[in-house]
Specification:
One of its GO terms (molecular function) is inositol-polyphosphate 5-phosphatase activity. Keywords: Hydrolase. Belongs to the inositol polyphosphate 5-phosphatase family. The protein folds into two domains: 198 residues, Endonuclease/exonuclease/phosphatase (Deoxyribonuclease I, Chain A, 4-Layer Sandwich), CATH 3.60.10.10; 77 residues, no CATH class. The protein contains ten helices and eleven strands. Helix 7 links the parallel strand 9 and strand 10. Helix 3 crosses helix 5. The relative contact order is 0.15.
Length: 333
């Protein structure tokens, strides 16, 4: 079983350290890479071009590799479900990511070279153009959209040459069991001699009793149906669990098995342990119904679902608006 991680956190960061070891008769070499993995359900809202993501991506302490997964980058209506990709929206997200990852580095470079360009009469634009060619820039390895699910992987330019065999695999689990309003987009690549697979998913929704079984079934379908090319030498891993390192991210949609009022009260008191004892994902995992052999990070943050846009207020905390569904807080990521 490969090292596997399932992450429920949204709008915050997790950095995973990857270690590559190689040796010969004369020396032992060790390379360390930090990998940032993040997930965000954006609720079908088109991002403004000046959206700032630096705090989320922790660009003041940059990782070496970023893998970002999004859900509902388009509204999940019939027109969008039948059209798998919207290149305009995915390009906008990639432009925002590119700007955020490179902004802090560029600012630091300009500060470092301030005296030099004043002395040499270089302009800021010239410094920017120069630094865009330097080794510390981030480049997109691969990105892919399936309806609302979007994943984008980025690496520092100086390790880009060590990335091989980037590929994607899409699995639709939505309407009729095959459309892409629910499902996954997975990416894989090899760094040196180690294969990585990142699974960005949006599993079945629903807060009724028994809906967790639909989410379990979606996860099983994703594991069963995801396939990657075997590569020119025909020895590359094809299935998710064949890879050396696997990380699953996304909107898993599992709820908390408590009355809504009780859930809200416990959230208000920050009783995370009590809430987690009633978390559907943990319960299904303990029963052996889903994600057997996987490991989840420690949960020490508030439930991620569902807030009013641009606020820290959960749906239903105030007087219910007309036509608004009840949304009990839950860890869905």
């Amino acid at each position: 079983m490969p090292d596997t991680i399932s992450n429920q956190e949204t709008l915050s960061s997790n950095k995973y350290a990857y270690q590559k070891r190689s040796s010969n008769k004369c020396f032992f070499e060790q390379d360390n890479y930090n990998i940032f993995v993040g997930s965000w359900n954006v609720g079908g809202v088109v991002p403004p071009e000046d959206l700032e993501m630096e705090d989320w991506l922790d660009t003041g302490n940059p990782a070496d590799i970023y893998v970002l997964g999004f859900q509902e980058i388009v509204p999940l209506n019939a027109g969008n479900v039948l059209a798998s990709e919207n290149r305009k929206i995915s390009m906008r997200w990639n432009n925002i990511i590119r700007h955020a990852l490179n902004k802090a580095i560029l600012t630091q470079a300009q500060d470092d070279k301030k005296g030099e360009y004043q002395k040499m009469h270089q302009t800021k634009d010239q410094i920017s153009a120069e630094y865009r060619k330097s080794k510390d820039n981030f480049q997109c390895i691969i990105s892919k959209q399936m309806v609302g699910v979007f994943i984008s992987a980025w690496v520092r330019s100086d390790i880009h040459q060590h990335i091989q065999h980037p590929n994607v695999s899409c699995v639709g689990c939505g309407i009729m069991g095959c459309l892409g309003n629910k499902g996954s987009v997975s990416v894989r690549f090899c760094l040196h001699d180690t294969s990585f697979c990142f699974v960005c998913s949006h599993l079945a929704s629903g807060g009724k009793e028994g809906d967790e079984r639909h989410r379990n079934a979606d996860a099983a379908e994703i594991l069963s149906r995801t396939r990657f090319p075997r590569g020119p030498s025909r020895n590359l891993p094809q299935k998710i669990l064949d890879h050396d390192r696997v990380i699953w991210l996304g909107d898993l949609n599992y709820r908390i098995n408590l009355p809504e009022a009780t859930t809200r009260s416990l959230v208000h008191k920050k009783e995370w342990n009590t809430l987690l004892k009633n978390d559907q994902l943990k319960a299904e995992f303990m029963k052996g119904h889903v994600f057997q052999g996987w490991h989840e990070g420690v949960i020490e943050f508030a439930p991620t679902y569902k807030y009013y846009p641009n606020s820290g207020i959960y749906y239903g905390c105030h007087q219910k608006k007309r036509g608004e569904k009840r949304r009990a807080p839950a860890w869905q990521f």
